[in-house]
Amino acid sequence: MAYPVQLGFQDATSPIMEELLHFHDHTLMIVFLISSLVLYVISLMLTTKLTHTSTMDAQEVETIWTILPAIILIMIALPSLRILYMMDEINNPSLTVKTMGHQWYWSYEYTDYEDLSFDSYMIPTSELKPGELRLLEVDNRAVLPMEMTIRMLISSEDVLHSWAVPSLGLKTDAIPGRLNQTTLMSTRPGLFYGQCSEICGSYHSFMPIVLELVPLEYFEKWSASML
Ligand SMILES: [Cu+2]
After folding, report:
1. Which residues, in sequence order, are bridge partners of residue 153?
2. Given this model, what pLDDT does residue 203 score?
3. Which residue of 8, 25, 55, 174 shows the fewest CB atoms closer than 10 Å?
4. Distance from the alpha carbon of residue 195 to the mean position of ligand 1, in angstroms
């Protein structure tokens, strides 16, 4: 989860999020280079008295300042598309979990099991135990096996919601009448927090998402205890 006054992203938990972090740094580097160049040129233009009243055209420099930005754009577009298609890939999932957005809670349905489903409500501030996180803790966490590809099916029962877990690089709209799909894979165990990311109504801020990623044997015990 994010810590107070955090400026950057949360640490990556999935390979996709690692890729996204690399891509973010790569793009930001280009932004810094362009900004410094532009600021430098602006400061030059404000301080110099040199003007070229006789220059009508300059083919060479025009060719350079047309082709160079095109190359920079390709350097951003190609890795971006690569990650986009990687995120779209469904890598033979070993578990499918359907989550539905409601006003204002999430419900989870483990469709590989006969009867494994529950609602996940936020714990109100007045009922928090010491050390629990305000507006982020839920009564029933979605327990999932780590190091396994999981297919998340996301939809909504009433209005638009969005199922988002930043450290896994996930953000998928929950749209009534539409079933969206995304893949989830965690490389380590732990608790991963997210929130609804579509303004969905008065309690929009109070429908957090908590994933508990555990080794497979613990997941099996948990699923057996839930049946
Ligand atoms: Cu919502």
Report:
1. 98, 181
2. 94
3. 55
4. 8
